[in-house]
Amino acid sequence: MKDLKHLIYFEDLLQEANNKLVQQAKSEGKYAIGYTCFFMPEVLLDLPGCFSVRLRAPRCTSPDIATYYMSARVCHYGRSLFERALEGGYNFLDAQMATETCTVTCRFQEHLQRMDVIKNPNFFCEFIDVPFKKTENSYVHYREQLRFHVLGKLHEKLGVDVSDEALMAAIEQQNEVSRLINEIGDYRKLDNPTITGYEFAVIQLVSLTCPKYLILPYLRETAEELKTREPDAKPDFRCKVVLAGSENDDPDFTKLIESCGARVVCDRYCYGAVESRQIIHVAEGQDPLDAIARHYLDASNCPRFMPQDVMRGRKKELARLVKEYKADGLIVASNKFCEYWSYERVIDTIVMKRDFDIPVCSIEKEYINAASGQLRTRFQAFVESVEIKKIQEGK
Question: Which domains does the chain show, CATH number per domain?
Answer without folding.
Answer: 19-166 (3.40.50.11890)
